[in-house]
Each structure stands twice: as C-alpha cells, then as structure tokens.
Amino acid sequence: MPIAVDIDVLLAKRKMSVGELAERVGITPANLAVLKNGRAKAVRFSTLAALCEVLDCQPGDLLRWEAEAEAEAEAEAEAEADADAGEVEGAGGASAGDALAGGASAR
After folding, report:
1. From the CB of residue 95, how many other CB atoms can be counted at a distance below 10 Å?
2. How far is the first Cα of the chain from the last one, in angstroms, to the nearest whole number?
3. Do residues 8 and 74 touch, judged by C-beta distance below 8 A?
4. How many CA atoms lie within 13 A of 97 on its CB side?
5. 7-14 vs 18-25: helix crossing angle, rounded to 10
6. 5 φ, ψ (degrees, to nearest 5)
7. In the chain, where do the E strands start and end?
8. Which of 36, 40, 84, 101 is 20 to 30 Å from 63 by CA-CA measure?
9. What is the pLDDT of residues 1-54, one digit of tens each?
10. What distance lies between CA 3 and its chain's CA centroid?
11. Is the dihedral angle over the CA atoms 79, 43, 93, 54 positive or is it negative?
C-alpha cells in the first residue's frame, strides 16, 4: 500500500513505548502494532486525532504517501524485521485490523 505510517519515528523522538502510546490513546497494543506496521486497512478519524493529540503532531507527521515500488520494498524490509524479532500478534476473535476499521471502537 502506498500509504506509509511513521508512528515509530514519532515514538523514538518522544522516547515513548508502543504500550504507553496505546494506553494513552485508548487502543490495544496489538491494534497499534497493526497500524504502526502498515497492515491496517483503515483508521478512524477519532483514533488519528487521539494519536495526534498524544504525540503532539499533525496527521501528515504520521501518514505519508510513497510510490508503489518504494512501499513494496519497505513492506518487505518490515516483514523481515518482524520475523527476526519474533513478533506475535494477539490471538482470538476479530483481527486487530478489524477493530481499527469497524467493529470495536478504537478511541
């Protein structure tokens, strides 16, 4: 997908953990990981607004468009990094992406 999410950049600048951001925004760490890793199909404006409030930033600081080839290369690199880190997503019920895009409220 040609939309890149730069949450990790802002987290590093603010010396904040994913868990702390998730708690302050009011979403699960698994849902935040889905968004952070570019696997979310949608994000609610209320979630985007909460992220901007907590990180003291603009939506454009979190999201950017990049050319398709660039996006594919970055996605492959992130997938390799996730595999190396042994990242495990939450299990059970609806997927974390579903919670961001519909079903459960991500506020």
Report:
1. 18
2. 24
3. no
4. 7
5. 100
6. -110, 125
7. 3-5, 63-65
8. 84
9. 689 999 999 999 999 999 999 999 999 999 999 999 999 999 999 999 999 999
10. 11
11. positive
